[in-house]
Every structure is written in C-alpha cells, then in structure tokens.
Amino acid sequence: MEHGHEIGSHPLAHFAGLTFNMDTLIMTWITMAIVIVLAIAATRRIELRPRGWQNFLEMAVVYLLEQVETNMGPKGQKLAPLIITLFLFLVVGNELGLVPGFTSPTNDINTTLGLALMIVAIVHVLGIKNKGFTRYIKHFFEPYIPFVVINIIEEVAKPITLSFRLFGNILAGEILLLVLGMLVPYFVPTLWLAFSVFVGIVQAFIFTMLSISYLSNSMQDGH
Amino acid sequence: MVELNGTLLAQIVNFLLLVVILAKFAYKPLMQGLADRQQKIADAIDTAERDRREAEQLKLEYKQHLVEARAKAQAIVETAEKLAEENKEEILKSARAESAHILQKAQEEVMRERELALAQLRSEVVAMSMAAATKIVKEKMDTELNASIVSDFIEKLDEQKIGGMPC
C-alpha cells in the first residue's frame, strides 16, 4: 500500500526551466497510446454492420457528433475531432486510475486545468473570429455596462469549475478507493470500484458536454 | 498537493497531439464509414420504397387483369351457352324435319306396297275367276272358240306377266 501515500504528490522532473510531474506525463502517454490503439483498431475497417468494440465506440462518437451538430451547427463540424478526442481521452484516462498500479492523468490539476484553459481559449478565439473584435468586447458589457463584472467572473469561473470538478472527482475517487481498501478490504472497495467506473464515464461526459456548450456559445453569430 | 507547473503546458501539447493523430488516422475513416453507411441505408430505403411501389403497381395491374379475365370468361361462357342453345334448336329442328320426312316416306312406301298388293290381288282374282269360269264353261264351248279364248287368255297372261299359275 505504498502507492496510496503517493497520491497527490508527484515525482518531479525539471526540463528547460519548467517542472514536470513525471507520473502524470507517463500516465497521459499511456492513455494516449490506448486511445490511439482503440480508435485506430475500431476505425481501421469500418463495417456496414458494426460489431463489438466498433459498435460501442461508434455509439459514443455518433452521439457526440449529434450533440456537436445540434449545438454548434455546421460550423462546429471542424471541432468534432477535438470533442471526440476529448471524450475518449477523458474516459480512458479516468478509468486508467482504476487499474491497480496505474493512476489517472486526470487526478492532476495540471491536466484538467490545462484542458479547460485550452477549451476556454478556443471559445474566446472563436468568439472573436465569429463576432468580430468589437462585438466580442461589447458582449461583455451586455445587457448593461455594470454586468461586465458578472460576465468576467463567469468567464473566469468556466475553466476553474470545469477543471476542478473533474480533478476533484477522480482524485477523491482514487483516494477513497485506497482508504476503503485499507479500512474494509475486498467487498466495499469493489462496490466503490464499480461506482468509480460509472463516475469516470459520467465525469468525462460532463466535461465534454460543458465544453460543447461553451464552444457553441461562441459559434453563434447572434448577440 | 495541488501545484501548477509545466505539466499544464505539456498536457495541452499532449492533448493537441492526440487530437491531430486521431483526426488523421481515426476520424477521417470513421466519418467516411459513417457516410458510406448512411448512403447505403438511404439507398436501401429508396430501393425498398421503389420496390414497394412497383409491387403495388403490379398488384393493381394483376387485379385489373383478373377482373378483365373474369369478364372475358363470363363472356365466353355466355357466348358458348347461346351458341349451344342455337345449335340445340337447329338440331332439334332438323331432327324434327328428318323424322317428318322419314315418316312421310314410310307412309308413301306403305301406300305403294298396298297399291301394289291390291293390284296383284286384283289380277290374281281375275285370273282365278277366269280359270274358274273357263272350267265351268269348258263343257259348253266348241273347240274353236275354246282355243281362241284360251289363247286370248294366255296372251293376256303373257301381257300381264302373271305367271306361276297352272293353266
């Protein structure tokens, strides 16, 4: 149970003046490798009648594509690979921590905040691109000028809530799994493990859907 | 425990890398496959709809054909019945005519036979009465007269070709 004491503290590496959490990076690469292998295996030969893994992946992807289409319209199609990749990465990353000996890359605030900041950055870039710079700035002062405070708080809150929700859920899940394993072995941790599988999928889904929702706001031409 | 550092940047780079890789190697074939499937399903539905319409058309046609055929059959049966009736009448008429003809012929035949028989009978009666008369008057006639009468008689017999009678 040495592993349990390591959660939250990371072995560090220094490179080019920056500090990196090596365990998070390694788990991220493992997650990426798994996602790539699964995605390519599932799409290498698209069959007319989907079977097995392809069927499952397609179900998720088609659902996400529908969400992208209904929320963002035809312009959002360009972002579809990003959304789908986000969901696959988060699902695999969340579930990876449930495998003994592995941790989730999403149990590090650097991962979740990084993803959230990236999404928010895309939101603002697209907002400027779609609405024009003046209208983009103007929409912070709507409906009345004093609302600028609330609007800016909202914009700042977006990446923070997005990243902390995922980070907290996954880290807490892993910590609780280890704690339960030490307190009441076998049965209760197994139940929690099963629930964590569910939580991992749900959190990935929430993160993805909120990202779609934020992105769709900036895709609209109105206001 | 919660500490931001260079990992954040690395994770963004990692994720964007993953997006690029997936977009290139998985997203395109997936979309192609989905599009193909959609096309195929649309085609299948179209074909099914077309087939269904065709089948309906055919069914309608067949129904019409059936009605026509039935009407035709009815007409044929009616014609045949009428023809048979006519034939029957004709046959009966000709049969009646034939029978009447045969009857008439038979009656004529009978009449002729009767006439013939009567004539024969008459001539035979004449011959017999002549023969009887000859026998009766034989005693009282001279030979000469007798001979003439006899020869007369014989001649008459020859004339009338009534033979088989002993003289």
From TrEMBL, chain A:
The keyword Membrane applies. GO terms for cellular component: plasma membrane; proton-transporting ATP synthase complex. It is found in: Cell membrane; Membrane. It holds the Pfam family ATP-synt_A. Gene3D superfamilies: ATP synthase, F0 complex, subunit A. GO terms for molecular function: proton-transporting ATP synthase activity, rotational mechanism. It comes from the Bacteria. The chain crosses the membrane at residues 25-43, 79-103, 109-128, 166-187, 193-215. GO terms for biological process: proton motive force-driven plasma membrane ATP synthesis. Keywords: ATP synthesis, Cell membrane, CF(0), Hydrogen ion transport, Ion transport, Membrane, Transmembrane, Transmembrane helix, Transport. PANTHER family: ATP SYNTHASE SUBUNIT A, CHLOROPLASTIC. Belongs to the ATPase A chain family. Key component of the proton channel; it plays a direct role in the translocation of protons across the membrane. This is ATP synthase subunit a. It comes from Pelosinus fermentans JBW45. The lineage of its organism: Bacteria, Bacillati, Bacillota, Negativicutes, Selenomonadales. The gene is atpB.
TrEMBL record, chain B:
InterPro entries: ATP_synth_B-like_membr_sf (IPR028987), ATP_synth_b/b'su_bac/chlpt (IPR002146), ATP_synth_F0_bsu_bac (IPR005864), ATP_synthase_B_chain (IPR050059). Residues 38-90 form a coiled coil. Pfam families: ATP-synt_B. The keyword Nucleotide-binding does not apply. GO terms for molecular function: proton-transporting ATP synthase activity, rotational mechanism; proton-transporting ATPase activity, rotational mechanism. Keywords: ATP synthesis, Cell membrane, CF(0), Coiled coil, Hydrogen ion transport, Ion transport, Membrane, Transmembrane, Transmembrane helix, Transport. Gene3D superfamilies: 6.10.250.1580. The chain crosses the membrane at residues 6-27. F(1)F(0) ATP synthase produces ATP from ADP in the presence of a proton or sodium gradient. F-type ATPases consist of two structural domains, F(1) containing the extramembraneous catalytic core and F(0) containing the membrane proton channel, linked together by a central stalk and a peripheral stalk. During catalysis, ATP synthesis in the catalytic domain of F(1) is coupled via a rotary mechanism of the central stalk subunits to proton translocation. This is ATP synthase subunit b. It comes from Pelosinus fermentans JBW45. The lineage of its organism: Bacteria, Bacillati, Bacillota, Negativicutes, Selenomonadales.
